[in-house]
Design a protein that fits this description.
Strand content: 15-25%
Shape: globular
């Protein structure tokens, strides 16, 4: 049986992280992806990338309307294996942390939490004020993994894609998905980086 992974793209900057995740997931025959796009995400795709909205949608197996609160993803009886919100805007984080499910993206995240499935929030904002931090702490208390896209450099990235893929690979680790998206610490170099 295929793993069902929900990918939510919200209206924060950094929508390329979500697109790149979808590209990698599309190459995994053992994964079925369910995509939810907010209006803000659609805007950022046009502003920040060279992708057309339809190209992004084609990367997913199933695309859900964010306004459809009767979608399969709105019910815990529809089994999934976890959810990425990548990027996660502060507005979406607030909806999740406060269980204010006025759209499918937040409702699906709420269902994932209540069913004790992995929820990974790639929160994109800087600097952070105390309200942002409190929302992240609340979501973490409910079971979400807060994973801001903070680049690492131990894998010797040579391109922007390498930087994106290290974050995406760490997200995939949390979902139990096998990948070779980055060189792990200790692979191919000694502790001095040689």
């Amino acid at each position: 049986m295929k793993k069902r992974i929900i990918v939510g793209l919200s209206g924060a900057s950094g929508v390329i992280y979500g697109i790149r995740a979808l590209e990698h997931l599309a190459r995994m025959p053992e994964v079925e992806t369910h995509l939810i796009l907010s209006e803000g995400a659609a805007t950022n795709i046009a502003v920040e990338t060279r992708y057309a909205l339809e190209e992004v949608k084609e990367l997913a197996d199933v695309v859900h309307n964010n306004a459809n609160l009767a979608a399969t993803l709105a019910s815990g009886s529809f089994q999934t294996d976890g959810m990425l919100v990548v990027p996660c805007s502060i507005k979406t984080l607030s909806g999740i942390a406060n269980s204010y499910a006025d759209n499918l993206l937040v409702r699906a995240a709420d269902v994932v939490l209540k069913e004790r499935r992995p929820l990974l929030l790639v929160v994109r904002e800087a600097p952070l004020h105390k309200g942002h931090l409190e929302l992240m702490a609340r979501a973490a208390d409910y079971g979400a993994v807060i994973y801001p896209p903070m680049p690492a450099f131990y894998h010797d990235p040579q391109s922007i894609e390498d930087i994106l893929d290290q974050t995406i690979g760490k997200l995939f680790d949390h979902l139990g998905l096998e990948h070779r998206l980055f060189r792990r610490w200790g692979e191919g170099r000694d502790s001095r980086g040689r």
